[in-house]
Recover the amino acids of this structure.
């Protein structure tokens, strides 16, 4: 590509409009698979830019997964708070993307179960008691293991073979980076989380008796494959020879 054509392509890939569209698709995915959530409208209003508190940034770098989660809950550093206490985060700039899923690290009731325990119904009060639920969460005993997944795209940090521009992390504070031969958006990341973490809900929607529900299967394939190409500037011929996700 000529230089101007390349930058036009980058501008299209990382446009705020594209992020907004895929963000809305993410909500549709969660609704489709019956995963209830609270949307953080304040973070949404910041257009995914510099969306996290300094305390969360600190804990995500040097703290444990539980400490990072606690900071995210305290400062509402999430895009979606799921009914089971898990959080999903999105952040964006024209050369960087960061999407993360963190399971609730506490052995606790879901938000709907919490409401039922105080004789309330979700259909009546909706998100009104999330602050009380957050306090309830951090007072419960911790789980032995939790699932943490993070997707990063960073052109500035790219080093051929050593540090892929596009990659997935599994776990907190480790050097595991699985290269991804493409650029994910919120909807493809949320679909990945939905299938891998919320398997039972996913299975019930995708299957119809003993057959696959073709409409829902097409819906899944459409979003899980919504990945843009990476310029060869950030995914070299040697990178292509590695074991990568696509």
């Amino acid at each position: 590509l000529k230089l101007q054509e390349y930058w036009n392509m980058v501008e299209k890939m990382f446009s705020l409009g594209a992020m907004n569209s895929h963000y809305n698709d993410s909500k549709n995915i969660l609704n489709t698979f019956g995963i209830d959530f609270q949307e953080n409208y304040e973070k949404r209003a910041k257009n995914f830019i510099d969306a996290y508190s300094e305390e969360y940034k600190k804990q995500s770098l040097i703290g444990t997964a539980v400490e990072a989660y606690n900071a995210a809950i305290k400062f509402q550093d999430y895009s979606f708070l799921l009914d089971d206490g898990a959080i999903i985060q999105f952040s964006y700039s024209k050369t960087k993307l960061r999407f993360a899923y963190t399971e609730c690290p506490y052995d606790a009731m879901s938000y709907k179960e919490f409401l039922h325990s105080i004789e309330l119904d979700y259909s009546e009060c909706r998100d009104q008691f999330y602050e009380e639920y957050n306090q309830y969460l951090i007072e419960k005993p911790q789980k032995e293991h939790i699932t943490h997944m993070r997707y990063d795209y960073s052109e500035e940090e790219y080093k051929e073979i050593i540090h892929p521009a596009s990659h997935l992390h599994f776990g907190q504070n480790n050097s595991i980076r699985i290269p991804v031969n493409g650029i994910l958006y919120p909807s493809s990341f949320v679909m990945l989380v939905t299938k891998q973490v919320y398997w039972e809900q996913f299975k019930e929607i995708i299957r119809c008796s003993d057959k696959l529900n073709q409409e829902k299967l097409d819906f899944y394939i459409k979003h899980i494959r919504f990945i843009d190409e990476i310029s060869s500037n950030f995914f070299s011929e040697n990178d292509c020879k590695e074991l990568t996700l696509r």
Observations:
- The CA atoms of residues 188 and 224 lie 5 Å apart.
- DSSP finds twelve helices and eleven strands in the chain.
